[in-house]
Amino acid sequence: MCPNLVERGRCPDHQRQVEQRRGSSAARGYGSTWRAFRDWFKNRLIVLGIAPVCGAALPGGPAMTWSQCKALGILNDRNLNLDHEPPLRPDERADRRAIEDPLRVGFLCPECHSRKTLAEQRA
Q: Do 111 and 79 form a contact (C-beta atoms < 8 A)?
């Protein structure tokens, strides 16, 4: 147990340890190909007249029920994460078709994405 008191989360030293174990974003599969897909997805939303905000997905895509912003009518477009729904299974993490399936992703803001990730980790 860490003796350092923090308002929320982990102390800086332990947070660094967690991040080092996770590896870089590129090592986790979020390199240039992922960024290109994310940009394509955002542009596709815009072409279809859909605002690229928390809770946005393509027609036929996931309902993005984890987006509290969407539920509250908040148009949050800051620091969006492209999130898979349903989450990728371990055997899909190397499958580009699953990773880049536009009908399986949508945007979540960092707060909504963290809430969803925490719930998935607890399940």
A: no
